[in-house]
């Protein structure tokens, strides 16, 4: 019998934000695969390190970090082939996914290669977006707000339209687009209504008004939230970005 | 010393989708409050019933179900006052929240009444939106998709604009707005690219093409997802709505 492929969301950073289901499947799996940079630690692996055991086979999927984190076809082909060999032998394989597997994640590249041939299950996770509103102490969206989620690499026109239309906006994958996105928010007159967040739920999380950010780039997983009409509340955030 | 108010997300329905943190805080709290209808079972309470113990004090917050689930001021005033008396005595109080507490949830009504006077922490949860993509086996959004989340009670113009602009849309709180929203999706030529979901992750979940839905109303927590360009994939969903 073939093994099952599980894509499990490991959440935004705090290991305790794994779901009980993800924890059960992770600790019972023979093989654990995860995205990893060329050098340094895998973020997804670091989140669940305390739950892993020495008998598990680990498969780091090394995605070269370029200017963009693009889907590197040959990397995923190779990883899918290695995972398939374990599934063929009857072993379950867990793929660790930062946040939620199917919310702008890279798990789709493995899923599309393997789901046709093997049983596959996705276990949803806490996205950093949901965690952002928790650490900010303010709803991401409420009542009948229209919430638009915009990947920061989007072109200027897309971003300008979204800034005009939505009641609340979340820019994800801010990274090297910080300066450009901040400029567009400023031109829309919304800087005073924008909060900047990085590494939420981790010890070194940063939360501050966008106006207090003085760097041109940010970590890949940083977020800008725009709350129309929230000037007073944004202004009350600590400008040093330290946790509240 | 005052107790702490916790708003914890209990997820979309499957009890195992609680986070480990939510589980720890829930099982350690003396007092557990939760939204409940005038008659019948509280959905949030039913999700975590197996984790509760007989020594915990329970506070049902009975929000009358009218045409809309509106914030009933006196109900929340009364609940906040009852919760405050427990916090004053030093007991921690957990408020159960369907999905995520700060993603279109009602926890904000208690938070705004109590967070100024008591320590308060929000534990994020799996929203039914994230769970929808997991049960569908398809990313909610990918790469640089702009994703717009539209509460179904929004007016026609807001919905029409969103249907034009976004790459992917999620209509939440569909309920009695099903027929109107389905009509607007049809006028935009997007019916063949829309999926309908209700009670995701529960045994009686339903997933089907929007075109196969023949009722005018839906449960409050139902969802319509529109994926532009996904005709073939939507057409392959089972039209009887049974779990895949």
TrEMBL record, chains A, B:
Pathway: Cofactor biosynthesis; adenosylcobalamin biosynthesis. Coiled coil: none annotated. GO terms for biological process: methylation. The gene is cobI. SUPFAM superfamilies: Tetrapyrrole methylase (SSF53790). Pfam families: TP_methylase. Keywords: Cobalamin biosynthesis, Methyltransferase, S-adenosyl-L-methionine, Transferase. Belongs to the precorrin methyltransferase family. It is an enzyme of class 2 (transferase). Residues 4-208 form the Tetrapyrrole methylase domain. This is Precorrin-2 C(20)-methyltransferase. CDD domains: Precorrin_2_C20_MT. The keyword Transferase applies. GO terms for molecular function: precorrin-2 C20-methyltransferase activity. Its EC number is 2.1.1.130. The keyword Isomerase does not apply.
């Amino acid at each position: 019998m073939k093994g099952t492929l599980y894509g499990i969301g490991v959440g935004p950073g705090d290991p305790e934000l794994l779901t009980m289901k993800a924890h059960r499947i992770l600790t019972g799996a023979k093989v654990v695969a995860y995205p990893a940079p060329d050098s340094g630690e895998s973020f997804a692996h670091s989140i669940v390190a305390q739950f892993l055991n020495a008998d598990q086979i680990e498969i780091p999927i090394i995605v070269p970090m370029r200017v963009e984190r693009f889907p590197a076809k040959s990397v995923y082909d190779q990883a899918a082939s290695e995972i398939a060999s374990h599934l063929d032998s009857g072993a379950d394989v867990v793929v660790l996914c930062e946040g939620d597997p199917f919310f702008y994640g890279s798990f789709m590249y493995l899923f599309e290669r393997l789901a046709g041939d093997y049983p596959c299950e996705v276990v949803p996770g806490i996205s950093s977006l949901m965690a952002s509103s928790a650490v900010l102490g303010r709803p991401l969206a409420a009542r009948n707000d229209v919430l638009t989620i915009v990947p920061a690499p989007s072109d200027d026109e897309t971003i300008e339209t979204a800034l005009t239309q939505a009641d609340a906006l979340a820019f994800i994958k801010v990274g090297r687009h910080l300066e450009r996105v901040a400029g567009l928010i400023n031109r829309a007159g919304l800087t005073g209504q924008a909060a900047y967040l990085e590494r939420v739920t981790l010890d070194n999380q940063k939360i501050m008004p966008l106006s207090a950010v003085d760097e041109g780039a940010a970590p890949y997983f940083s977020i800008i939230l725009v709350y129309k009409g929230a000037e007073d509340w944004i202004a009350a955030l600590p400008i040093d970005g330290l946790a509240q």
